[in-house]
Amino acid sequence: MAATPAPPGAPPKPTWDPRKIDAPFPWLRPTIRIRLTLLYGGMFLIAGILLLSIIYLLAAQALNTGNEPLFKIVSAREIRVTSDNCPQASSGSMTIPEFNAAISACTDHQRQVALDNLLSRSLLALLGLAVIAFAFGYAMAGRVLSPLGRITRTARAVAGSDLSRRIELDGPDDELKELSDTFDEMLERLQRAFTAQQRFVGNASHELRTPLAINRTLLEVHLSDPGAPVELQQLGKTLLATNERSEQLVEGLLLLARSDNQIVERKPVDLAEVADRAVDQALSEADDKGVQIRGERGPAVVQGNGVLLERIALNLVQNAVRYNVKEEGWVEVTTEAQHGQAVLVVTNTGPVVPAYEIDSLFEPFRRLRTERTGSDKGVGLGLSIARSVARAHGGRIIAEPREGGGLVMRVTLPI
């Protein structure tokens, strides 16, 4: 949190991010399977339309639609014709020119009817085949993209800290097989890196804690000697404070390294109990600084690690107490369950925090307008650890400036 007040006229940090602009028409961005289906079906539809046009033109040319009749009657005494399909030619006695004109009109009409029937039936057949083509294209697109689905499922399993999963895609050596093999190689390297990190954290935990504990014991033994000179006692107290700060730094770094991974073993944890324990641990320091801790804490049960969740609450409460006003300061700690989430809110009075400085508070070893080291208020890892633990539990932590000074820290975790 902030260590010194900020100028009251500090401009807020803009929240607009061009990378997070929502598309105006999300439905215009179909999935790749739908796009492949439209591509397959569209190509078939275009090819069918071209084929139908060519057949229609060839049929029209073959039928030789035109005004010239196929035959003419040159001479006859009297012509009588009966026809259901050509009523013009069966209207009684006609002259030869009238009969030739009627036959020509009937022939053209029958040719046009034949072409119209060919066109309508071809369009119906094309429509039915197009439906079949789109369905077939959708099925084929799903089969073609099935390796990508397998890769996606493996990636989701890996995101859940199961680095032992592999795709092991079978089939020909095509682009998808190459992508799968590359992804498997990347997972293998990640697993080795995480295993080495866990091994390093375990070794560092032992190698770093042991000498610091020995130094603290030796210093406490020398300070317990009543006959020690005043200068030596003062030096011992200084070294003991430095050693304690180093222990806090080591513990914070180890906790930060462990909490960056997902929590595998989860148990029901009530945030209200976690917050109560954190408040009890910070009461002594709050009384020394004249800060009042208040707030109602309702039940909010989540699945997680109780020790790490208590670290979130303790870090937030301690920061709220330490970075507060000198007179009539207060800290409000509340917990509740709302909208399928457990919420922990820590609000405090304190110096004004500019909105554009909020993000930097969560960076390791960063404090607002103070040196990176040398502060008596902590080692600068509290908020970094809180954010890391919240992420490991699938939640998040948000800091907002409070009107009049101080911060509102909101932790949301899935129930």
Gist of the model:
Helix content is about 55%, strand content about 10%.
Q: What features would you describe in this structure?
A:
There is one protein chain. The longest helix is centred in the first third of the chain and has 64 residues, at 96-159. The chain is elongated and about 150 Å long. Helix 2 packs parallel to helix 3 (175-223), helix 4 (230-259) packs parallel to helix 7 and helix 5 packs parallel to helix 6. It has helices at residues 32-63, 96-159, 175-223, 230-259, 271-289, 306-322, 382-392, and strands at 267-270, 291-294, 301-304, 329-338, 341-348, 396-401, 407-414. Residues 1-21 and 371-376 have low confidence and may be disordered. The chain is of the alpha+beta class. A hairpin with a 5-residue loop joins strand 6 (396-401) and strand 7 (407-414). The protein starts with 31 loop residues before the first helix and ends with a strand.
Oligomer: single chain
Structural class label: alpha+beta
Number of domains: 3
Number of strand segments:
7
Q: What order do the helices and strands follow?
A: HHHHEHEEHEEHEE
Rg, rounded, reads 41 Å
Share of helix among residues?
40-55%
Could you say what the CATH architecture of the largest domain is? 2-Layer Sandwich
Report the total helices: 7
- The order of strands across the largest sheet is 2-4-5-7-6
| Low-confidence sequence ranges | 1-21, 371-376
Assign the CATH topology of the largest domain: Heat Shock Protein 90
Task: Give the overall pLDDT as a whole number.
Answer: 77
- Main beta-sheet strand count, sense and barrel state: 5 strands, mixed
What percentage of the residues does DSSP assign to strands (E)? 5-15%
